[in-house]
Amino acid sequence: MTTYSLMSGSKKFNTTETFSVINPSTLAPVGECPKATVDDLHTMIAESRKAFESWSAIPYAERQAYINQIADALEKHSEELASIITQEQGKPIGASLGSMFEMGGAVAWTRYTASLELPVKVLQDDENGHIELHRRPIGVVASITPWNWPVMIAIWHIIPAILAGNTVICKPSPYTPLSTLRMIEIMNGILPQGVVSSISGGDELGAAISDHPGIDKIVFTGSTETGKKVMSSSAKSLKNLTLELGGNDAGIVLGDCNPDEIAPGLFWGAFINNGQTCAAMKRLYVHRSIYKEVCDSLTAFSKSVKMGDGFADGAELGPIQNKMQFNIVNQLVKSSIEQGGNVLLGGPLDSEDTLFFPITLVAVENNDNALVQNEQFGPALPIIPFDTVEEAIKLANDSSAGLGGSVWSNDKEAAAKIAEQMECGTVWLNKHGAIQPNAPFGGVKSSGLGVEFGEEGLLANTTIQCIFS
Fold first, then answer.
1. What are the extents of the domains in the chain?
2. 469 exposed, middle or buried (CB, 10 Å; 0-12, 13-18, 19+)?
């Protein structure tokens, strides 16, 4: 079993303690992860602040060249990193949306981000004066990543930050740290000393990062409740923040849809990565005129999808990544049934000696149902009928979350009008969850603060300096 290392100042950083990382498919340990202390964090921050001085002074074009080299290295090591992802996260390695897909996304985001520019903007140039708007790096950026897409989300945090001239300390989830640690080790074979460091351990490290005055910005992807804690702690030193938090995405299906035609799109919109995706569809509202047909078509399609070990032939979905999340999903399905939900397929489970939770569809009449109002973050989808478009919009917006949403219809003009009324950061028409590196992504309401991706995401890693002459 491999023991992994942290990276600090471009050197391997060993800790006195380690902890085991568990394969959610087999429940067996797959590797030993370093358990860093708060004192180790202090050391890394000092290294990162020192590195910032030289890295921020490097010409922008040279930083772009470094990032393109990182993309090449990620592509070269894709199979190695995908294998680690599958072992620690559980998603199938060869599935259409599995760990090799994650690595493909990581490479694509890295290459695209390297192509972005940060030009000086001239605000005024006339007889009254010349004003230029410059973008400057912020300083040391802390990246705190979740367990659902461990490599790709780390790339989303790290690459725009270092392109803008910042240095980064990345703390992956203790459930899935190994692929991120290995990826950062690969990066350190390319980057100058101290530009990207890695640290892993328990919740106390996250709290120390939020509170530490040597951290200038935090990029956090995770639950809304934890995001609130990060925001509260970081207020002491007025840190810059980007928070991508929980979602409870609604899909609205209008009555003109063909249920059999949309069933695959609905399924993968909801169950990508086994539902363990912030922007997965978590609630499905269907016009009553085709409600039964959509339920039947979605149930039939769901039965055709194979769930299994991430290295098994033909597996498209894996287990829930950890026991805590398994219990959340199982309890929400049980509560949904107690409140009148009718299980069309799947759970709940009485036995809890596995992390494989069956694909579960629940017919629900009441929008107050627990499975509707709470983010399940797993393979369970409530399906709710509606009678009018106005009712559907009201039900979809009846949530504190506002990450994504979708409208399904053969009338794109009508669908677009509905999209404009949905309270969320992204709306898809006739698909769900299709993010791209050139389109900014973020949430409203309790789903986050700021955006990632594209030019807007890059600018979020800078401060503004205006020069008057």
1. 2-245+444-468, 249-429
2. exposed
The token duo for 198 is: 């890695």
Confidence at residue 203, expressed as pLDDT on a 0 to 100 scale: 83
Of 86, 107, 106, the C-alpha closest to 95 is 86
Residues 6+ apart with CB under 8 A from 16: none
pLDDT in tens, 190-213: 999 999 999 999 888 999 999 999
Token readout for 412 is 């794109």
User: Please, which residues have CB within 8 angstroms of residue 315's CB and are 6 or more apart in sequence?
Assistant: 92, 95, 306, 307, 308, 309
Give the homologous superfamily in CATH for domain 249-429.
Aldehyde Dehydrogenase; Chain A, domain 2 (3.40.309.10)
Catalytic member of 47, 88, 102, 244: 244
Secondary structure of 238-299 in the HEC alphabet? CCEEEEECCCCEEEEECCCCCHHHHHHHHHHHHHHHHHCCCCCEEEEEEEHHHHHHHHHHHH
The CA distance from 170 to 355, in Å, is 27
For domain 2-245+444-468, say whether CATH 3.30.2140.20 is its number.
no
Per the annotation, the verdict on 365 as an active-site residue is: no
Are 89 and 148 contacting, i.e. CB atoms less than 8 angstroms apart? yes
What is the predicted pLDDT for the residue at 351? 77
Structure token digits, residue 386: 């509606």
